[in-house]
Design a protein that fits this description.
The chain is mainly alpha-helical and 136 residues long. The chain has helices at residues 14-28, 33-40, 44-52, 54-77, 79-91, 97-135.
Amino acid sequence: MREMGPKPSKLNTTRARDQQERLIGELLAGKTLSQACEAIGISRNTGWRLRRDPEFQQTYREARESILDAALDQLSDSAVVFCQTLRQVCEDPNANGSAKATAARNGLEALFKLSEQRDVVRRLEALEQVAAEGRK
């Protein structure tokens, strides 16, 4: 009798892996599944079958996270410039009141979000430490 468990991946051929990589690239570029399938020359049914595969889903998640990490790194690298720009607008005697208010609000919102995120990270790290100590 065959053991029941997760279905094996169907992405075991070179052709299927190539289709998977190309489909992921098209989806990450913002295309719909239909558009992506058309762009790489596969049927929509093949696209759906690839997308349902657990290996595809994992690879897609990892690729998407990698892109988001790179975007976040670029934004972080520009944070000082953003802050300087906001400050210049707020301090510019020729800037109108609306521009100053918008710049101040944007700066305060960014500060609030950053401090909130730091607080969440610190709490999560403390919980992880307690959990790790409980497992010992």
